[in-house]
Amino acid sequence: MSSRILPLFAFAVALAIFFLYVNPMWTGSIATANASIAADNQALVAAQQYSAQQNQLATARDAIDPSNLKALTTLLPDSVDNVGLILDINALAARSGLSVSNIDVVTNSSGNTTSSSALANATGALPAGNTNPVNSVDLSLAAVSTFSSFQNFLVGIERSARLLDIHDLVVKGSDTGVYSYQMTMRLYWLR
After folding, report:
1. HSE-up of 185 (CA within 13 Å, CB side)?
2. pTM score of the predicted model
């Protein structure tokens, strides 16, 4: 009889060990660890794909002619250099014979207000999600000059290496041939 009890006792101990220790460990902490390892492996694959794409884009960027890259950076800079921009507009106005009396930052068409401090702190941060990587700011400009000087100023704006639009223009006439101009210019830059 003892020959039958010992195997049954061993089987009962084995079942107890399985149900009390092995099964909870297998379905509990080991399953959690396996899920964590799987998630980490997916993240590692995504990181490797990102790194490969980053290397590919860096190689493509390095293949661009530096003079073309500089021209593109001038056309659409990665920040708003408001001091340099105002100096450029004043220099263009002086060459054209236009007397600028006021330059001010206004609300752009999307309803966002951009203050001078935001202009000074604008950086080329990467866009998130579906946001547009190009941002804009509107500048209000008041000036006085003859019409031919104003035409020269507009030609200078048109030939400017910087991407900007004049989207609002008010001309106030006078009998002396010197007109008052109020215009809104929209400047673009990469976020």
Report:
1. 21
2. 0.57
